[in-house]
Amino acid sequence: MTKQLTYGAAALAALSIMAGSVQAQETVIWWDFLSGGDGVRMKQLIDDFNAAHEGEITIDATTLEWGVPFYSKVQTSVAVGEAPDIMTYHASRIPLAVDQGVLQPLTAEDFEAMGVSEADYAPATWDAVTVDGQQYALPFDTHPIVLYYNKDILEANGLLTEDGLPVGLDSREAFTDTLMQLKEAGVQFPLASVTADGNFMFRTIYSLMAQQDGELMTDGEFLAGDNAEKLTNALSVLQEWTNEGLQSTYTDYPATVALFTSGEAAMMINGVWEVPTMTDLQEQGNLFEWGAVELPVIFDHAATYADSHAFAIPANQGSEMTPEKRAAVLEVMGWMAQNSLFWATAGHIPAYGPVTESADYQSMEPNATYSSLTENMIFDPKTPLAGVAGPIFDVMATYFVPTLNGEMDPAEAVDEIVYELNDM
Amino acid sequence: MSNARHREWLIAFALILPFLVIYGLIFVYPTIRMFMLSFTDARLIGEGDWVGLENYTRLPGDRRFGTAFWNTAYFVLLTVVPGTLVALAIALGINRLKGRLQAAILALFFLPYILPVSVVYLIWDWTLNFQFGIAMYLFDAVGLDRIPVFKTTTWFMPAVAFVTIWWTCGFSVLLFLAGLRAIPDEIYEAAELDSSGRWTTFARITWPLLWPVTALVLTIQLISQLKIFDQVYLFSTGGRVNDNLVLVYYIFQRAFQSDQGGRAAAIAVVLFVIVVVVSVLNFQLTRLSGRSR
């Protein structure tokens, strides 16, 4: 009898301890839109986090469809209080998100709890998550576009410098000349360009605009003043390359990557997120020697368009987050920032300064070659109309595709773009 | 007597009540809300302020609405009648076959219909892709210039219409086959005795007797093609989106990309009215022309 009682008491004690630990354990519901090579790496980071916080915090992650589906779901789920505790967000979409009331603001105390501060971030990156002086997300990375190049082809044609970089990165004439020489040497596509996808080309074209200090939006007006002319200039360069047969036409995203990796194209302008594709192919012995470098300076100075993956906390309607839960979410954000070195293997440039300054990162290739562009990055204009898969994208794409493939005059395309942008 | 009728009425009401409730909840109520929404400046979520007819009055001057309207009309023109004729031709052919062969051929024509739209998109993208599409190698082989089918406004709608007919005509074929089998053999035997030719048999017997099915197929096609969205969305991704707009796509753009629920609702109401008017007209016309025969 006493024995039974003792057992009973022990069982009860055990139960209450377990119950206690269950209460202390926070489950953080996580949504992201990372389904490619970087998605695999994010899952690794999440597993590492869970292992390091066993018994305290568990991340319960779900990957959703990138783009409009993701952001529509966030908006509707916030409205009914069913959004996750943390989610990935494009910095470019933050102005729209603030307008919709989808995000919780992050305070100075929040950043302190994460163990990060403004000084750890590049000013442009920090500014990208700021609306009217208030931060709404923690930047996790920046993902610019870069110039990929096939070292074997360039070298065979004497177009590789001693540092292993392509010749002619400093002016429009020089770069066009490099492309011309490749063409004459019998390379079918000197440059692989995503000419069938205007959404994608926005990144290249906006970079070229920024190289002339052009801005898409000034004082709430699109392409005011000589900005329209700068867009025309940017489109003209790309159309010239098409007319001269220097770049692939009507090529969609997967085809562009395939043209480059199969060696049919000597160079390619694409996002840093394709770095894992190249690394993996090379490890399997299926790729030539390659490199990636900051975009060539076609106009006045270097500039590259970038967006940033950031972490944000949804402003769930009608369900207050407990302080314990919020603390757990902040711990997740801080930990991810401090452990973002691994994220660099996905090609992205970690946003957290101490990581990019570390010796480990500095010796990482090809990241180290192109990380110089962090100083020349430009982000989307701050308007609710901007952002990946936003309304600006559709207008641009509609006129970029015919222009880049030589069907439409650049000046005419810009007139139409100005009309439609201001008509939204 | 009246008591019994009363009870009968009650039972009938009880039996249709579940349907009425569900129909009211998931169709009538949202439709009424859509009409109300179209008079406000509401966003995708939440209420908005009353703006009267503004969402409607701006439509005639809205360039994207114009594009969407005419593209939808063009698409209907390219698919409804041609799609019905193709299905009829296939059904007539299959009807001549017998036994297992007939079942096998029917299955072949029906197969695309069971594919999800995303698979249909991938198959045709692989076929017509400008750089790597199989069809482009055929073009090269015969010495034709490659055509960026889904990236030019000239080819976009005809190509999507072609894919849509390929994808959906299996269902119409089934309806036509059912209609053909319902025509009694005796009539054909009698025609044969009168030594009626093939064309006369078709024009005087098959076509008139099949007319109710044809009218049904036309109506179904018309309504579903007016509501086209998926294929256009998938095939124009990244391409010339605003040149390829159709009405449902424009509703989607306004509601989900621009966060303008009110303006989206106004376009939805316009489409609703178009579908109602056109399908009633179509039904009446086909009925009348059926009678006059």
UniProtKB/TrEMBL annotation, chain A:
It comes from Wenxinia marina DSM 24838. This is Carbohydrate ABC transporter substrate-binding protein, CUT1 family. InterPro entries: SBP. PANTHER family: MALTOSE-BINDING PERIPLASMIC PROTEIN, MALTOSE_MALTODEXTRIN-BINDING PERIPLASMIC PROTEIN. It comes from the Bacteria. Keywords: Signal, Transport. One of its GO terms (biological process) is maltodextrin transmembrane transport. Belongs to the bacterial solute-binding protein 1 family. Residues 1-24 form the signal peptide.
Automatic annotation (TrEMBL), chain B:
It comes from the Bacteria. Gene3D superfamilies: MetI-like. One of its GO terms (biological process) is transmembrane transport. The chain crosses the membrane at residues 9-29, 68-92, 104-124, 159-182, 202-220, 264-283. Keywords: Cell membrane, Membrane, Transmembrane, Transmembrane helix, Transport. It is a multi-pass membrane protein. It is found in: Cell membrane. GO terms for cellular component: plasma membrane. This is Carbohydrate ABC transporter membrane protein 1, CUT1 family.
